[in-house]
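Milestone M4 deliverable, item 7.
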Amino acid sequence: MADEGTSLEDTPQEPAAPPAEEAPDNTLDLQGYKLDEMGGAQVGRIEGKASGRVEWLVARMGRFGHYCLVPARDAVAANGRAWVPYTRDQIRRAPRVEPKAPLESVSEQAVLEHYGLA
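Output delivered:
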């Protein structure tokens, strides 16, 4: 015979398991962040991201400057700034891209070679 003083509502319930987390994305939302080299010198501003064989940050060099891609995989971000392990000169000499244009495999290969990733 069941004990009359207990009910299902009185028994402790296990907390529901939290939903599975997705893999972290290093480039979550860096748009608008200032882009700096690891030495601290400001290089430009991040205008967005692009995907291809590698995740890329689309960066604008200077106020009216050109756009280029910077590998996002080693970027570290905090307080509105993102640091990458490349020199200011190396980033500024990267092949130029159009920010809204699709990433062509030929131009991506040139950028990979520029950063020594190919």
